Please model this.
Amino acid sequence: MSKNTSACSRVTHFPRLRRVALFALVLAAIVILLGAWTRLVDAGLGCPDWPGCYGHLTVPSGEQTIAQAQARFPETPFDASKGWPEMIHRYAAGTLGLVIFAIAVACIRYRKLGAPAGLASFAAGFVVLQAAFGAWTVTLSLWPQVVAAHLLGGFTTFCLMFLLFRRLENQQGSANLPPEPRASVLALRPWLYGGLVLLVLQIALGAWTAANYAAVACTDLPTCQGQLWPEMDFAEGFNFFQAVGPNYLGGKLGNEARVAIHQSHRIGAVVVLVAFGALFLTVIKKARGTAIAGAAGIGLALLLVQVGLGVLNIVLQIPLGVAVAHNAFGAFLLLSLVNLLVRVERLRVAPPNP
Model:
């Protein structure tokens, strides 16, 4: 293939792929929102089977169909108001999976032109694992370990779609800097990666809080149940070997265990606020006037919004809209850090400005 033909193919196909990747990114965000909505309205077991709903491809309707559904699953009373959130989430997640597979096929086809076949293939493989966690969430009756892993998987899929979107850009460069500030920004790389680990741990704590219905364990601030340090059972709260089998809808942990989880998430939020506030401000100062500083500024704004939503969740006792937004902005905050890391890594490999 000639160079001209190769260049033409790149111009023809990569912009299309990038638009599809952007669609997948937006759809991944929607799936995260739908997952939070499904969980918060207690519809995680709205359909007791998978991938259908009471043996049907859609939520049963009509007296005869509902009677058949109830006969198949007599231990699970039929409730269409619970079934629809679950199935809408499944339809959106299934659509996302198909789009990711299409992107992977296209990237493999155009890998010789520079398409990120490896990243796309990994994303396709990961979405299969995520689908398995979705199935286990139902078949294992909301076992907290699986629910938390499924939540983390959704955030991971979101970030993978963003990385695919960025890798499909025609321009692979990043805003450059003169030697001195460039060196200062690059010196922050270990702190940024450490921050990524810290943020993932905090998100995991949030997922564990949600999976064990511990968000409402404390409904006052800055105290919890009227005490600065209430009675807590960390051993039970962080027992990752809970029995498989019971129906975990509503949670099975005692009050002190849920308080331990909730307080841990609160403390983690304070640590993240201080650490990331300092980190983002430092990047803004050292990369002033560049796209890297802009990315850090967006991250700082998202951090403040996310903390504010967390406070509102407690004060207003988990209103649905605020709780769903808290999930969404957690994903956006993670994405902002990934975006910042991408820009810094591109700065590292770009030739320095004279």
In short: Residues 1-172 form one domain. The CA atoms of residues 100 and 204 lie 24 Å apart. Residues 3-40 form the longest helix (38 residues).
